[in-house]
Amino acid sequence: MNYLEEYYNAYNEEGRLLSRHGQVEYLTTMRYIEECLAGVPDPAVLEVGAGTGRYSVTLAKRGLRVTAVELVEHNLEILRSKLDGTEPIAAMQGNALDLAAFPDGSFDLTMLLGPMYHLYTKEDKLRALSEAARVTRPGGHILVAYCMNEPTVIQYVFGMNNLREVMDLGLLTPDWHCVSDPKEVFELVRTEEIAELDAAVPVRRVKLVATDGATNYMREHIDAMDDETFAKWMDFHFATCERQDLIGASHHTLDILRKE
After folding, report:
1. Which superfamily, per CATH, for 3-259?
2. d(CA 13, CA 9)
3. Res. 3: pLDDT tops 50
4. Measured at the alpha carbon of residue 49, what is the angle toward residues 187 and 5, in degrees to the nearest 5?
């Protein structure tokens, strides 16, 4: 068992996405999934790194043809437990670095909503993105989620008083980039690093979106909101989530790409 399996075997990922603050990321991602699929007749959707199926199962229950690929068996078991057998979904174990099971141009929408969190070299990130682009039809969309560097420095390093620990462990570069490796579980990036990956693959960026924006800085306040206040927060979030001057401060981003 590796660090990633240990983490997801113990972590309640489903609970995070169902919490009120987790709903911001979920609702935002679904909004842009729907935008990418608008006008596409009978779309074929691939989610690589499908986790517990929060997106794949939702889309399949709406009648969309979905293929869900997930590396961690524990997550795959949870995903399958949500299905009653009537959904048009194929769920299988697999790796974002090797999608050889799928021919070129097989899908209208390919989603990498988790793999980039756990790939630690530029070569692996490019391989995953290249594979996603390969299996997407020309003109189709690729959605790629990232964890961003600066929010971790602000909240974990300074906000949680972990500066001395991370410095002693050598987990910060001189320009304040967090150092990641498999035992740290999450890989953290900056917007310019995302742009470098996109430039190396036959895709065109449509949008780069802050999927949670300021939400995780004030998650206790978000979780305590009544329905009316939360609806207003979502209005504010959607009004600002595409502002490029705020993107790097979001904990999670969504890179929306079109296959050339």
Report:
1. Vaccinia Virus protein VP39 (3.40.50.150)
2. 10
3. no
4. 70
